[in-house]
Write a structure and sequence with these properties.
heterodimer; A: alpha/beta; Rossmann fold; six-stranded mixed sheet; four-stranded antiparallel sheet; globular; B: mainly alpha; MetI-like fold; 8 helices; flat
Chain lengths: 244, 223
């Protein structure tokens, strides 16, 4: 379980996260919505330890991310997929996917490569296993990013606007894979602007507004008139985001 | 024997001088690059105090003439510290440190040129700081550095000619000797100059091949 208790984050005098509370149980898909600058990505970056907390605590399966031992344990349990892929450009697709399993988990190379090839097959990149990322399209790169995360066999998948840098067609490629993972019961914390997709795959929707968590509801309730749509801010957000 | 003609033996002399120049160049390059890389690692780990000392010393080495550094090491250090200093030791020490200072700057910019995003990804996946340096930063920093590094080494090859001043029998010193004997400065210095030129060209060609190898993951897809 990921437990976020009273988390605060300040950059200088700017309060980016204000006393956030959130729990993600194993098997859940939780989508975080909110406009740009609402603190969604910062929250993900707090969970995976890229930002130090200004207050409160985050525990991943009981491991406190603000201690170095806790963070190391927490990072073994979660894996992140990034908006701009953040692949290692000097390594082939296969090496990108096997690096952490070999170096961090200590898997034997042969085993790591077999597992990586299976994942690469799964996302339809079989012929590109030995290509460098620069030769791939954005959608293909992001699929490699997903393989790299899955190769760590994480309990929690953190997805930070993974389709924001992709065109609609490539977005489709990536979302298809995420839908399959969700259906298989992968636990996900999903920061996105893809409202319709979020509605299809999420168990719960969380809405952030200027660093505050203003709504945390089951997906169905969030999109119902008496639930999320009853909140003016959310109604306005949804109508803007789904206009086109 | 004042105005003596060239003899076949002069070619042997020339080869010896070239050997000394190349040997000294190879040794100072190895020491200089190793030291420059070690300083870059120290800088990467942000070792307190030492980081600042390294930057200050390299700044001194970069911004003063190599000839002055050579005089300081060869004449100044024995006088001040009461140590023996042969010309070869002084030459090795001076040129190695000078190469190290410039290599440090090149390596450091190479490290800084690696995108932070990838380093964040590696941290999130649980890689240690050393693994990140070894697997993510170093290979890319090496590819970024090799171009400027070849430029530096071509220059340092020319710089080695300064050591002839303190009596090391390198290519330039041999040129001096042949010139004094034959009084044919135009011929002598043309040959010596051409020899440096060919060595530098060979070095640049080797470096170019190394660079293409290191940057193989970066493909030009046309403009």
């Amino acid at each position: 379980m990921i437990e976020i208790n009273n988390v605060e984050k300040r950059f200088g005098s700017a309060e980016v996260l204000k006393r956030i509370n959130l729990k993600v149980e194993p098997g859940e898909v939780v989508t975080i919505l909110g406009s740009s600058g609402s603190g969604k990505s910062t929250l993900i970056r707090c969970i995976n330890g890229l930002e130090a907390l200004s207050g409160g605590a985050i525990r991943v399966d009981g491991h406190d991310v603000s201690t170095s031992a806790g963070l190391a344990a927490a990072r073994r349990r979660s894996a992140t997929v990034f908006q701009l892929f953040n692949l290692y450009p000097h390594m082939t697709v296969l090496r990108n996917v096997t690096l952490a399993p070999i170096q961090v988990l200590g898997q034997p190379r042969a085993e790591a490569e077999a597992q990586a090839r299976a994942l690469i097959d799964l996302v339809g990149l079989t012929e590109h296993a030995d290509a460098y990322p620069q030769r791939l399209s954005g959608g293909q790169r992001q699929r490699v990013g997903i393989c790299r995360a899955l190769a760590m066999q994480p309990r929690y998948l953190l997805l930070d606007e993974v389709t924001s840098a992709l065109d609609p067609e490539m977005t489709g490629e990536v979302l298809a894979i995420l839908a399959r993972l969700a259906a298989e019961g992968t636990t996900m914390v999903f920061v996105t602007h893809e409202i319709e997709f979020a509605r299809r795959i999420s168990d719960r929707i969380v809405f952030l507004e200027a660093g505050e968590l203003i709504v945390d509801m089951p997906t169905e309730a969030f999109f119902s008139e008496e639930g999320g749509l009853a909140v003016p801010r959310i109604r306005k957000f949804l109508s803007k985001m789904t206009k086109d | 024997m004042r105005y003596a003609d060239f003899t076949p033996y002069d070619l042997v002399l020339l080869a010896q001088g070239l050997g000394v120049t190349l040997g000294l160049f190879a040794a100072t390059t190895l020491i200089g690059l190793a030291l420059g890389a070690a300083l870059t690692v120290l800088h990467y780990y942000r070792v307190p105090v030492i980081g600042h000392v390294v930057v200050a010393v390299t700044e001194l080495l970069k911004n003063s003439p190599v000839l002055v550094q050579l005089f300081l090491v060869f004449f100044g250090m024995p006088a001040f510290f009461q140590v023996n200093m042969t010309p070869v030791t002084a030459a090795l020490l001076t040129v190695s440190l000078n190469t190290a200072a410039f290599a440090f700057v090149i390596f450091r910019s190479g490290v800084e040129a690696v995108e932070r995003d990838q380093i964040e990804a590696a941290r999130v996946f649980g890689h240690s700081r050393w693994q990140i340096l070894r697997r993510i930063i170093s290979p890319q920093a090496a590819a970024f550095s090799v171009g400027p590094l070849i430029g530096l080494l071509v220059n340092q090859l020319q710089v080695t000619s300064l050591i002839s001043v303190i009596g090391v029998a390198d290519l330039t010193k041999i040129g001096n000797i042949l010139n004094l004997r034959t009084l044919e400065p135009f011929v002598v210095w043309s040959v010596i100059g051409l020899t440096y030129y060919l060595c530098a060209k060979a070095l640049a060609a080797l470096g170019g091949r190394l660079e293409r190898h290191l940057r193989r993951s970066v493909v030009w897809q046309g403009l």
